[in-house]
Design a protein that fits this description.
single chain, 290 residues, alpha/beta, five-stranded mixed β-sheet, globular, transferase activity, transferase, Glyco_trans_2-like
Length: 290
């Protein structure tokens, strides 16, 4: 049985996949690339790098594609969810596996993420972590391995059996907050979330997919919708109306001053919040309902 298999979801990711897959190969980790109907050469790039490729006929969203990849990794004891713009540094996989052996009750483990400018990225709070003792999100970076209330979905390792037992990522979500939701369900199971400081990964942040017209509007739509969805799922205050009332004036002002970036940003947030309030699903927006 392979101890670890990496799952990489690609969508127009041909520019960043070579470095990601080369790093995995250098760590002797087989990769399954789930291609979400890329319009570039992502699938052929992945095949040339020796990865197993699953081609989705259309963009299924981040969570649904990852779930398909994990189900295909039938021989794996652990799975490593990796964004295509993440490059594991030498020794990162050994450190993650060693941590998993040291803390067998851990449900999720993640490496130290380093941003392009050299900063150490660490999420200090989560919408779905009411047990968090640092509600203001004061940044206190770990100096070593540490338990955390939330781990970034850019790179996560967990036992495959646990992932499947939890139902994987919530497939009602097309994009955003899938990792918050998974972290919350792992924590609710009583399993620890561990930041593994000795494992390091470079994160390109925002470079997973090539730019495209309307990308900002679409991303903000899903961000607002998913935030409202997970809030309702866990009985938290519904942010939809507040998001709507905040975003509409900003979108109108951006339109008045002909600021397209602001119009897309705030218009997308308003549209996503309104869609949730009206009962429209994220999957329906993407033509995936049913």
């Amino acid at each position: 049985m392979a101890s670890l298999v990496a799952i990489v979801v690609a969508h127009d990711s041909a520019d960043v996949l070579p470095a990601c897959l080369a790093a995995l190969a250098g760590e002797h980790v087989p990769a399954i690339v789930v291609d979400n109907a890329s319009r570039d050469a992502s699938a052929s790039v992945a095949e040339a790098a020796g990865a197993q490729v699953i081609r989705n006929a259309r963009n299924e969203g981040y969570g649904r594609a990852n779930n398909r990849g994990v189900r295909a990794a039938a021989t794996a004891e652990h799975v490593l969810i990796v964004n295509p713009d993440v490059v594991l540094r030498p020794g990162a996989v050994d450190a993650l596996l060693e941590a998993a052996r040291s803390w067998p009750d851990a449900g999720l483990l993640a490496p130290r993420l380093v941003e392009p400018d050299g900063r150490f990225f660490f999420q200090a709070r989560s919408l779905l972590a009411p047990y968090l003792t640092n509600p203001a999100g004061r940044l206190a970076l770990p100096q070593g391995d540490a338990c955390a209330p939330f781990l970034s979905g850019a790179c996560l390792m967990m036992p495959r059996a646990l992932f499947l037992d939890l139902g994987g990522f919530d497939e009602n979500i097309f994009l955003f907050y899938e990792d918050d939701d998974l972290c919350r369900r792992v924590a609710d199971r009583g399993r620890a979330l561990i930041h593994v400081h000795r494992a390091e990964a470079l994160h390109g942040r925002g470079r997973s997919s090539a730019p495209e017209p309307g990308r900002v509007f679409r991303a903000r739509w899903h961000q607002a919708w998913s935030r409202a969805y997970v809030s309702r799922k866990y009985g938290l205050p519904d942010p939809g109306l507040a998001d709507l009332m905040t975003s509409i004036p900003k979108a109108l002002l951006s339109g008045l001053v002909l600021r397209r970036a602001g119009l897309e940003r705030y218009g997308g947030s308003a549209a996503g919040a309104l869609a949730f309030l009206r009962g429209r699903t994220a999957l329906a927006r993407e033509g995936l309902a049913g």
